[in-house]
Input
Amino acid sequence: MLKTSTIFKFPCGPEATLSQVGGKGLSLIKSSESGMPVPPGFVLSVHFFTPWLEQLKTSPEWTAFSQATAEQMQATCSALKSASAGFTFTNEQREAIDEFLEDFEVDALFAVRSSSPEEDLEGASFAGGYETILGVNKTSIESAVRRAFASCLDFRVAAYKREHGFDVSSPKIAVVVQRQIASKVAGVGFSINPLTNNFDEAVINANFGLGETVVGGLATPDTFTVDRNARTVSNKQLGGKETSIWLDDSGGTTEKPAVQKNDFCLTDQQVLELSDLIAKVEGIYGKPIDTEWALAENQFYLLQARPITAYMPLASNMVTSPCERKSLFLDATIVVQGLYKPMSPMGTSVIARVLTAASEHVLGQSILGDPHKSVATVQNGRIYINLSVMMAMFGRDKLAQVVQQMDPTSSQALCELDEHAYKAEKGAFSHPPFHLLMQLPEPILRLLESNLLPEHAHKSVDRAIANFMVETREHAQNDKSVMDVANDVIPAGFKFIFRHSVPLFAASRAALEQMKSIVGDINQPAWTKIQRALPNNVTTEMGLALYHLALLEPGSAAYREGWKLFVDLYGHRGPEEFDIASPRYRDQAQLLHDQIETLRKSANTTDNPQARFEQAQIERHEAYEELCEQIQKQHGWVQLKRFQAMYRVFENTSGYREMHKYLLIFVIDLLRQRLLSRAQQLVSEGRLDNVGQIFDLTLDDVTEADSNSHYDLRAAGQSNRTFSNRLAAVPSLPALFDSRGKILRPAPRAPREGEVVGTPISSGVVRGRIKVLHAPDEKPLLRGEILVARATDPGWTPLFVNAAAVILEIGGMLQHGALVAREYGLPCVSGIPNATALWEDGTIVEVDGTAGIIRTVDLI
Output
């Protein structure tokens, strides 16, 4: 007889593991053992299905599947499912199941659900990918279990696995057999708000009958938002509840037209009772939870609980308790550097050292520290600015003006929030930073030089930069420790930037503002043109240098000389260069070769970077002459001379806005080279597996390793990566959020002509071409197209791989399609009546999943 350990009863069964019973099964066992109202049942473990899997792997269908290309996967998956359709229970399997079924009445009905060991993990939901069969009686258990088992062979599961890096060649499945609840109302509930990430709100979707209409997106449910702290229903929206599914007494289900569609299906008191249940489940798991529930005979039942996969976690030291004053954070890694994925631990460590050196030099103290009391904090690959502290120092409105220069959307959200709810009790500095006064004489002299003799100031700083790079490069090429090199080059780099390039850039900004006050509204097109194609911009010069390399014959002496010069000047640059772990151009010769080849193929004598730059220079000079003439006519000779003087300053110094980063990255790259050298030593000593692992460490880790030969660098690197890896899994990190996880965005604006408004389901903004589908296999959805459908059930899952965004006629924020869209990071809008008839294939639209707006884009 089959060992009973292959079947796990709940409640009151033996302990089980994820590998034995899968995500759903383990969740039900854990919840029922914790006293939650879980309908009883049992789980057929992975081992229970060993006979079927062994039989399957000897079939020709399995051979074809194991050798299939990506294009053949769907057909081979279908063949595998067909092969499994003839499987029957062995005598041992049947006897084991019958033994457990004896605990239930003769007329009991069951829900039979697939439960994979890979499903409902913290990083992957497989939402709706596996099979659920409802209203199963005892006589049809075998066929239902067979269907559930076969779902592990489904193409939509294989596609999801392939997209998320799972092994598709080793299917494993367990099956839950659970007492079916004949619910009057059912649905899903999140312990946090999935749209705003607010930890203090629970969101519940509900419909009459069974919850399948809500999970599968077959109806637009009622939506309830609960303020968990005040324990009130803060918002509720009546759903269309277009259809409902009911359990038949004899087995199976019946779909019926909407019942009481104009009434909410839960009272406020029931919503609060349900939110309390969801909070208890969250407490058991210790993390945000997505639940499925049912209401029958005034009793709430928990049908499923799983960790939410698509939310932004906060480090524990950034979270405030529900009753504390909240802190407001701006992610400078996004708004300043454009990095949406976390930096490496070493990159984080180095940037923290840079900011510390900079603030100590200027202010005499570090701006980094306690996330809730300091100006900034650097951790887990991110740089966060504490806007609450900044508001206490400057006020909300002035702060919003500063943020406007970095991110207009965050600035607008900042203007709209309640200042008193976020403003810290005091700023970061208890007294004026008098230390700053001691550092200003030399920069002020440079600033005066820039205003009086801009050409001379530029030449002087240009020479200083060349000398600094030579001297600092020599200084870093010695036998000092990594930490000593960091302590030498980082402060030296910032002092140089503060004393040389910053004053010139400050002069350019001041000159621009004075010019703007003179010009006013005289000629806006000309005003725009005089800010283009300015000289002395190191980034522009790098692009032009790359183009001139493309003009040379590859392999020639001139090309080799040009390549050497380019690498000497710009070899420390590269994609995502702010992170010291990112390879540089000197490390990626092929990247440079590819860019050169692209320029060689795409440019011609009339359309190339050099020609465009020179044409923009001509237009700038013409615009300048045009403005001078108009200023003299309208404001007179004195204002003209003032404008001309400021223009000289602006023209010579504006390009220095790019020099700070150029020099900073140069210094970081010097440290990078020293780190790589040390990494090679650690690899040779057997303490690291490869040189790249050095970037999983921090500067302190490397210092500790220098003095302690037993320090476990591999374990340190793994620990350093733990939380940043969780952040890296978030599809889209927000720029502005608070210490209770809430993502702050501007209030939705009123729709304009050419826009359609629906319910925001999954945030983000994207443009693409519409593809209207009435069935998942109607026609191919190409990469980057926007999927428009009436609703999406699990059978649509493979299409989400190619989709850029999703537009649905019906369904709530917790339906299957919404979960998958959020997990894939796809903007999604629902509740668009007649959506499949509003647009034709190929129509270009912009989908704003944050505001719930779709806008038709007219291409000129």
User: Anything to note?
Assistant: The mean pLDDT is 88.
